Amino acid sequence: MLQTIFLWKNRISLLIWPLGKNRRAFLCALLVLLSTCAPKETWNTTTFIYFDTVCEVKVFCSPSRFKAVQKAVQKVFKDIEIRFSPGSTDLASPEVLSLYQKAYAVYQDSEGKFDISVGDLSRIWGFHDLSFHIPTAEDLDRTKNTIGMDKIRIHEGSLVLSPGTQLDWGGIAKGYGIDLASSALIDMGIARGFVNAGGDLYCWGANPKSLPWKIGIKHPRRSGFSGVLSISDEAAATTGDYQRYFVEEGTRYHHVFDPHTGFPARGKQSVTVVGPEATFCDALSTALFVSKQPKTILDLYPQYGAVLIDSGGNISFLGKPVSFKPSE
Predict the structure, then answer these.
(1) How is the chain split among helix, strand and coil, in percent rounded to 5?
(2) What is the C-alpha separation between 216 and 224, in angstroms, rounded?
(3) Residue 319 β-bridge partners
(4) Beta strand segments in 225-303, E
C-alpha cells in the first residue's frame, strides 16, 4: 500500500493508495469524493448604481468566489466614477490620459462629431441641474470658444483645458468602466457572464442555456424592444434621443448634441453599436448618432457593426454584420 497525505479545507487526510486491480475502483471513488466536495458553480446576480444607472452583473461561479466578483466590480466602478463624473478635477491619472487618447481618436475619425469638450453645452441647456431650457443665441455663440478638442492639450502628463472648457465623459466613460470590470472578472477565471449598465454592456461565454446572449434594443417611442441582438464575447452600447430629454412646443430636445451647431442632433432616434470593446461602442454610438455620414465613420472600425433607427422609426444596418431579429 502507498499512503498519500493531502490537504483539503485546512484538514489533513490520509489516503491509502491500493496496489493492483483495486486501483481503478479506488481512483473512481476518489474522483467522486472530490467532485462532491468541490464548491458548486451556479449563476449569481448582483446590482450596482453606476453613473446614476442600475448596473446588473451576472456570472457563473461558486458562491464563495462571487464575493470576490462583487468587490472587483465595485472597485472598478468607484474608481471610474471618481475620475470621470461631472466636476471631477482629475486630469493627470493614467486612466484619464488613456481614455482621453481613445476619445481623441474617435473625435478625429468622426470629424468632431464625438467630442468630450461639450460639457458647456450640457450646462447651458440645463441638463446638469435638470433646469431644461433652450439657451439664447448669445449663450450658444459663446460656446464656440470653449468647445472642440483643440481646446485640450497634454502638458507634462496632465490634460490642460482652455478657459471655460468643460469635459463631459458621458459618451465614453461608462463603456470604459464596463471594459475594465469585465476584463477583471475574466482575469479572475470567470468564464461566463455579463456586465450591463443600462444597456451598455459586455457579454462573454454562453448564457444559462449555453447559447449566445440575447440583448433587447429598446424601442425609442414605446415600451418593449425594436429587436433582439445575439452576441457573445462582444460589447454593445446604445445612444438614443429618449434617454434624457425635454419637450417644448412639441419639439423633443435631447442630450446628444452636435458640437458644430450647439443643438441636439437630428435624424435618428437611436444607434446601437456592437463590437469588441464597450469603450468604442459607447463613443461610436454617439458619433454615428450625430453624424449625417455615419458609414464614413464606421468604415474606419471594421470590427464594429451598428443598428440605426432613424427619425421615422426605420431600421438600417452599417459595418460588420450583426445578429439582429426585429420585434414583430
Answers:
(1) 35, 30, 35
(2) 8
(3) 305
(4) 225-231, 234-240, 245-248, 251-254, 268-275
Amino acid in position 216: G
d(CA 103, CA 97): 10
Grid coordinates standing for 61? 461561479
DSSP-derived 3-state class of residue 87: coil
What one-letter code names the amino acid at 47? Answer: T
* Residues 175, 143: Cα–Cα separation, whole Å: 27
List Cβ<8 Å contacts ≥24 apart for 282-285: 282/171, 282/172, 282/173, 282/174, 282/175, 282/176, 282/200, 282/237, 283/102, 283/103, 283/106, 283/114, 283/171, 283/172, 283/175, 284/106, 284/114, 284/237, 285/237, 285/238, 285/239
Question: What are the CA-CA distances from residue 286 to residues 198, 255, 281 (Å)?
Answer: 15, 11, 9
Residue 108 Cα distances to 16, 116, 143, 148, angstroms:
69, 12, 20, 11
- Check whether 32 has a pLDDT greater than 70: no
Task: Report how far residue 60's alpha carbon sits from residue 63's, in angstroms, rounded to the nearest whole number.
Answer: 9
pLDDT at 20: 55
Q: Which of 168, 173, 161 is nearest to 127 (CA)?
A: 168
Gap between the Cα atoms of 157 and 90, Å rounded: 12
Q: What pLDDT band is residue 231 in, cutting at 50, 70 and 90?
A: very high
**What pLDDT is attached to residue 10?**
40
Q: Judging by DSSP bridges, how do beta strands 305-310 and 315-319 pair with one another?
A: antiparallel
**Cα separation, 165 vs 159, whole angstroms:** 12
pLDDT on residue 199: 85
The C-alpha cell at 165 is: 472648457
Cα 124 to Cα 166, 183, 255: the distances in Å are 12, 37, 11
Runs of H (alpha helix) within 110-262: 119-124, 137-142, 173-187
27 pLDDT band (50/70/90 cuts)?
A: low
Residue position matching grid coordinates 466636476: 87
Q: Please report the pLDDT score of residue 237 as a whole number.
A: 98
Residue extents of the structural domains in the chain: 2-37, 42-326
CATH T-level topology, domain 42-326: T-fold (3.10.520)
